[in-house]
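Hi support team,

I submitted a single chain yesterday and got back a structure, but I'm not sure I'm reading the token output correctly. Could someone confirm the output below corresponds to the sequence I sent? I've pasted both exactly as they appear in my results page.

Thanks,
R.
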Amino acid sequence: MDKDPFRLDGETALITGGGTGLGLGMAKSLIRQGSRVVLVGRREKELRDACRELGPAAGFVSHDVTQVDKAGELIARAEVVAQSPISLLINNAGIHLKKPAVQTTAAEFNSVLQTHVVAAHALTVAALPGMIARKHGVILFTASMASLFGIPNVVAYAAAKSAYLGMVRTLAVEVSPHGVRVNAIAPGWIESPMMRKALNDDLPRQQKILSRTPMNRFGEAAEIGWAAAFLCSPAAKFITGVVLPVDGGISIGF
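Hi R., thanks for writing in. Yes, this is the structure output for that exact sequence:
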């Protein structure tokens, strides 16, 4: 019988922001498909708790991804933890800023870009030489509905997540000839600490979001996880440079 094309046996994934929320959801799905994972984040307790939940296929490195000069060191440390090369990189770490554009300072704007865009670029650049040398790898970015349409009071976040789309397309054109695929997932409103912080117990906004979502519910982290597992798997081996909305239909609803 042919190998299941949805399996990830022999792969090792580095997931930034992997200790909670969407990152943890992706880690669970990748492990179920046979991958090892290395979680990266700033809070060691959350990472330890996540690895305890995930089991022996998971390890972690406590690290602040905004220390871009240490991106190569992070890849090296992760490969020591996993005892294998990083073949899947998921740029998922991020921060949220809910503020009107006219009240957003340059420092706040820059902080959001640094965490999402500059850090993801540095880590991608650090991971790519090994992937290119092996002619095998997948890089995945966690984009957003804010990459696709206008959402008020998140100008810095929207700018950062929109930048991911240009990065995905440019990187895909550059590295796909070398056996490395680059894609993004654009989650809709998924139950997570970040979503709850963004909604801030704002019932009218929650109702507005649900009224625009054809499936009439918020998503689950596992639903992002399975999309990530698919895009990382051989089943998606002819897919590169795409942004996949996983959003219950909100990006096409009216």
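A quick pointer for reading it: The CA atoms of residues 36 and 56 lie 9 Å apart. Let us know if anything else looks off.

Best,
Support desk
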